[in-house]
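U., I forgot to send this yesterday:
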Amino acid sequence: MNSIFHRTSIREFLDKEVEEEKIEQILKAAMAAPSARNQQPWEFYVITNKEVLKELAKCSPYAGSLNNAPLGFAACYRHDIMCPNYAHIDLSASVENMLLEIDNLGLGAVWLGIAPVEERMEKVREVLQIPDTLSAFALISCGYPVKVNPQQDRFDKTRIHYVK
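Result:
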């Protein structure tokens, strides 16, 4: 699991398509995530259309990396689930799995937050024509990185509290 200590947010990508088998592997990793009561609320949109990626880049002030990405994912959650209050938690685990597998495959990505900001969620819905039975949770820009910076060491012993 070296990707945990290697993965960084990548916002610049080479002009190179991501292979279908890698896309499928990323989605398998996403769907391997744990979820409340095993509800697996996720559905994913895989976007390679450059014009659609550019429209999605306008959905959030932080989504500009989609402008030069060869690939984007929209992680969504279904409404017909047992524990709707846990959908965001479930999708967070799923997106983290995606980011780790993306790094493992020699690709780069950045998680672009959409939920819980209703305005952003609605813009993504409009661009992708997402049905009312789903809500957009996150966008992920993905591709072969122009460069990879070393990950910062975020370990902080002062944030650990032992109860004995």
